[in-house]
TrEMBL record:
Superkingdom of origin: Bacteria
Catalytic EC class: oxidoreductase
Biological process according to GO: L-valine catabolic process
Record-annotated 3-hydroxyisobutyrate dehydrogenase-like NAD-binding domain positions: 156-281
NCBIfam families per UniProt: HIBADH (TIGR01692)
Reactions the enzyme catalyzes: 3-hydroxy-2-methylpropanoate + NAD(+) = 2-methyl-3-oxopropanoate + NADH + H(+)
Name of protein: 3-hydroxyisobutyrate dehydrogenase
E.C. number(s) listed in UniProt: 1.1.1.31
Signal peptide: none
């Protein structure tokens, strides 16, 4: 396939390279990054998009996605598919999909889970919203960049799945960290706590696969001084998107709201910026009830 790829950051560059290594012709653009071989370089997003069968975007947020989409949609050939893999607000995903289909294009919102390691290793999970035909067109590319792609429903359904998943993840990580800090104060050995919880009803991905306590459970960012991994800043971004969506859908999400407040404070006031999101554990360790 001829592929246009726009947005070559931590995630986009390795995803685009995996597509090119699999034999696809990938023309790539990023205003701040030089495409690495075997990617072909384009002078603009529109140039990368022109003539492509599929255009993939991997951008920081919904406002930038809307700008880029306004530039590339008129340049794309009829029947091509615009596939956005960024994490953005549901409203932006739906607005871009509407504009694309008005222009005779297919459109997918296909945010990912799996982080930078998943992007490099081709093991991402894609959660996808949009039409079935567009999904079938892009499916072979999802298979190269990832290990699983779930077609979640119409436009916006991929972003909805992503923010619901990450709202669960954020709240679960917080409660896992506060439970470790409580266990410390109760004199319970951390390894014993892990041995019990990871095989009892309190188990979760945060505890079992990404344990926030150093030296306990499988290797995780806690064992590397809480270097990300999945940065607290990105968790905050996703929690804010969940709250924005809950607001516009009139959904009651009290734990999601509290998780957002805690990560907001952690990132903006408590040196959490640039640390892994599991660094909530040292944060709780330092605190008592009154602080
Ligand atoms: P990043 O900041 O490393 O990369 C974003 C890239 O977009 C940058 O290279 C930037 O120059 C480029 N860009 C900005 N404006 C542009 C424009 N107008 N035209 C073209 N390119 C432009 O971010 P990332 O870590 O690669 O994440 C990308 C997306 O994936 C985000 O939406 C993020 O939330 C999501 N995501 C990231 C992770 C992760 O672990 N990093 C995990 C899952 C999802």
């Amino acid at each position: 396939m001829k592929i246009g790829f726009v947005g070559l950051g931590n995630m986009g560059m390795p995803m685009a390279i995996n597509l090119a290594k699999a034999g696809h012709e990938v023309r790539a653009f990023d205003p701040a990054a030089t495409p690495q071989p075997p990617l072909a370089t384009s002078g603009s997003a529109a140039e990368a998009a022109a003539g492509a069968d599929v255009v993939i975007t991997m951008l920081p947020n919904g406002a930038i996605l809307r700008e880029v989409a306004a530039e590339i949609i008129p340049a794309m050939k009829q029947g091509a598919v615009l596939c956005d893999c960024s994490t953005v607000d549901v409203d932006s995903a739906r607005a871009v999909a509407d504009d694309a289909s008005s222009a005779g294009l297919g459109a997918l919102d296909a945010p990912v889970s799996g982080g930078i390691a998943g992007a490099s290793g081709g093991t991402l999970t894609f959660m996808v919203g949009g039409g079935a035909d567009a999904f079938e067109t892009v499916r072979p590319l999802f298979d190269i960049m990832g290990q699983k792609a779930v077609h979640c429903g119409d436009s916006g359904a991929g972003q909805a799945a992503k923010i619901c998943n990450n709202m669960i993840l954020g709240a679960t990580m917080i409660v896992t960290c506060e439970a470790f800090a409580l266990a410390d104060k109760l004199g319970l050995d951390r390894q014993k706590m892990f041995d019990v919880v990871s095989t009892s009803s309190g188990y979760s991905w945060s505890m079992n696969a990404y344990c926030p306590a150093p030296g306990i459970g499988p290797q995780s960012p806690a064992d590397n001084d809480y270097k990300p991994g999945f940065a607290a800043d990105l968790m905050l971004k996703d929690l804010r998107l969940a709250q924005q969506a809950a607001e516009s859908a009139d959904a009651d999400t009290p734990l999601g709201a509290l998780a957002t407040q805690l990560y907001d404070r952690f990132v903006t006031e408590e040196d959490g910026s640039g640390r892994d999101f599991s660094a909530m554990l040292p944060r709780f360790e330092q605190r008592g009830r009154g602080v």
